[in-house]
Amino acid sequence: MWLSNRNAQIAIGLMVYGLALITHTLPFPWNEGLETMRDLEFVATLSLLFGILKAHPKHRAKLMLGWLVITVFCFLSMLNTGVMIICPRVDRGPVSFIWILISWSLAGVVAHLWIIMYNEYVELTIGAEQPVEEVHPKAQEALRKPSLYPNTENLTISVHGKPVEEVDAKTQEDLKKPSPYPNTENLTILVHGKRMEI
């Protein structure tokens, strides 16, 4: 019950928003720049919760797609913050890597949760992935062997022991007459690439 798809999606949405809120711990100049990202993630999380809990199943995928797009922006903002902390301080001496580590580890967790939610989105829109059946080695070997049955390139049809081209006109007319046997009216025979209907 607790591990259903619905509960997992709600938990992932709330965890990503929680991770976005953790960016308040970053130094002030970068924290101010991430305010837009946190606001967008809040709106995306609310729309995701609405889509999971109340929306019509037809609209659930669209709301989930909106969450996925905004969460990519959140992920890229966290990566960019780590880079922006490094760049201005490189020529001024040692950098406190704790802020970079916080920013990039948050981005890594967000990316992992995004991938889980993306798989849920694909399952919702396209359907569950079919498991790939492995072919037994003996079956693979049998598939590689040439067929014992002739293919249409080697097929020769003879009427009364003669190839069809050599059959006289009366026999060919007899072949064109309706057959007394059922289901032979639509029978088509290919002879040396030429079509012959019976």
TrEMBL record:
Record-given protein name: Uncharacterized protein LOC117568683
UniProt gene name: LOC117568683
Domain of life: Eukaryota
UniProt keyword annotation of Membrane present: yes
Keyword annotations of the record: Membrane, Transmembrane, Transmembrane helix
Transmembrane parts of this sequence: 12-30, 36-53, 65-85, 97-116
